[in-house]
Design brief:
- The chain is an alpha/beta fold and 361 residues long.
- 31% of the residues lie in helices and 27% in strands.
- The strands form two sheets. Strands 6-7-8-15-9-14-13-12-11-10 form a ten-stranded mixed β-sheet, sandwiched between helices.
- α8 runs antiparallel to α9.
C-alpha cells in the first residue's frame, strides 16, 4: 500500500513517534510537511498517517475510503479515523467500562516493538517467510481492528498481489471488528492468550526430583526431542485450519525447535531430562530486558506429573542469571493444560485476541 506520512513542525512526543516511522524503512512511503498537503495529493495514497488534521480533510479521506491512522493523545473516539494510536495511553478506573459497547480505547502500541509498529503502519503485509514455507501467498493484516476503509484497501492489495490466504489477529473486545470479519468471510481459528510474569530477583535453589536434571539443549539433543515437537501443538490454529498440510504443520514446529537450539530464531532452548535423556523443552527469545517463551512441551509419557512447573522454575533461574526479570508466553485458549501450568507458575493473563484466517480459493 502507498503510505503518506504527514509531519508537523510542532515538537510533540506524538510527532516524534511519527517522525520515527522513517526508521522502519517501509516501502511505498512518502513523508511531507503538514503545510504541503492538498486534496489532490491525498487521493494518490492508500494510507495516511498524521497527528492532527482538520475536519474537512478527514471527511475527504474517509469519503475516498483511504485508511486514516492518527498518532495522538486520546480524548474521545473520532469515527472518521480508522486507526487511533496513543502509545502513552494509560487505563484507569474511569475508563474501565464494558469494552464491547462502552468506552472506546486507542491502540496502545509499544513503539519500541519495531515489527508490530511496521505491521500496523503497513496495514497489510505480504509475509515472505510464511509464503515460502507454506508455498502459498500469505499476508497479515496488522491493525487489530477492522473498518470498511481497511477492508476496501486490503481487498485491493489482495487482488493486485494475488494473495491466497489472509491472517488477521483481532482485539477480542471490538464488536465492530468481529462483525466486519464475519461479514467478509474471515473464519475464526483460535483464541490467542498472552500471559506474563515478573520473575523474583531472589534466587531459589531448585530441588531436583530423583533421576531428573536440567540443561541447555545442543544439536546433539535435537533428534531425541524432535518427536515431542512433532506430536505437540495439536491445539494450534494451523491444526484447526484443514487447508494447511498436516505434514507441513509438523515441519513448522520441528523447524522452530531446531532454530531455537541453534539460536537463529529463539535465543536458546532449555531441557528437562530423565536419566539424562531429554523429555521436554522450553525455547526462549530474549528481547532487551524481556524474555518470551516460544515452544514449550513435555513428552506425553511424562505429562501431569508437575514437570512443567519444574521446567518453568529452571527457566526463571536461567533468566535471573541474565538479569531478566519479566517473562511472557502466548498459548491457545483451547489449551487448558498449558493455561493451568502457566497460571500455577505465577503467570497472569495480560490480553486475549482472536485469530482469523481467510482463504481466497
Amino acid at each position: 500500500m502507498k503510505k503518506l506520512v504527514i509531519l508537523s513542525k510542532i515538537n510533540t512526543k506524538y510527532n516524534k513517534v511519527i517522525s520515527d516511522i522513517k526508521k522502519l524503512n517501509l516501502d511505498d512511503t512518502t513523508f511531507i510537511n503538514k503545510k504541503d498537503i492538498n486534496n489532490i495529493l491525498i487521493l494518490n495514497f492508500d494510507v495516511i498517517i498524521f497527528e492532527k488534521l482538520d475536519l474537512k480533510t478527514l471527511k475527504k479521506i474517509n469519503k475516498n475510503k483511504i485508511v486514516s491512522i492518527s498518532i495522538n493523545k486520546h480524548t474521545k473516539q473520532n469515527k472518521l479515523i480508522d486507526i487511533s494510536i496513543d502509545p502513552f495511553f494509560k487505563i484507569v478506573k474511569k475508563n474501565l467500562n464494558n469494552p464491547v459497547r462502552g468506552v472506546f480505547r486507542p491502540i496502545q502500541l509499544d513503539v519500541l516493538n519495531r515489527l508490530e509498529f511496521k505491521y500496523l503502519i503497513n496495514v497489510i503485509t505480504l509475509m515472505e517467510w510464511d509464503s515460502k514455507f507454506w508455498n502459498k501467498k500469505i499476508c497479515f493484516i496488522g491493525p487489530k481492528k477492522l473498518t470498511q476503509n481497511i477492508i476496501f484497501r486490503c481487498n485491493k492489495f489482495i487482488k493486485k498481489n494475488k494473495i491466497q490466504m489472509i491472517q488477521f489477529l483481532s482485539e477480542c473486545h471490538d464488536l465492530e471488528t468481529v462483525n466486519i470479519a464475519e461479514k467478509n468471510n474471515f473464519g475464526f481459528k483460535d483464541i490467542r492468550i498472552t500471559l506474563e510474569k515478573k520473575i523474583n530477583k531472589h534466587t531459589k535453589k531448585l530441588l531436583f526430583p530423583k533421576n531428573f536434571s536440567f540443561r541447555k539443549a545442543t544439536m546433539r539433543d535435537f533428534e531425541i526431542i524432535k518427536p515431542v515437537a512433532k506430536n505437540s501443538y495439536l491445539d494450534s490454529r494451523y491444526y484447526f485450519d484443514t487447508k494447511f498440510s498436516l505434514k507441513k504443520v509438523k515441519q513448522f514446529y520441528t523447524g522452530w525447535l531446531e532454530k531455537a537450539i541453534l539460536g537463529t530464531f529463539d535465543t536458546f532452548c532449555l531441557l528437562i531430562c530423565y536419566h539424562n535423556k531429554p523429555i521436554g523443552f522450553c525455547t526462549i527469545k530474549i528481547k532487551s530486558k524481556d524474555a518470551f517463551i516460544g515452544l514449550f512441551s513435555i513428552s506425553e509419557k511424562f505429562q501431569r506429573k508437575g514437570l512443567s512447573q519444574l521446567l518453568l522454575s529452571y527457566a526463571d533461574i536461567e533468566l535471573r542469571k541474565l538479569n531478566i526479570f519479566k517473562i511472557n508466553v502466548i498459548t491457545q485458549g483451547r489449551n487448558y493444560s498449558a493455561l493451568k501450568a502457566y497460571q500455577a507458575s505465577g503467570f497472569k493473563i495480560a490480553r486475549t485476541e482472536l485469530w482469523y484466517h481467510k482463504w481466497m480459493n
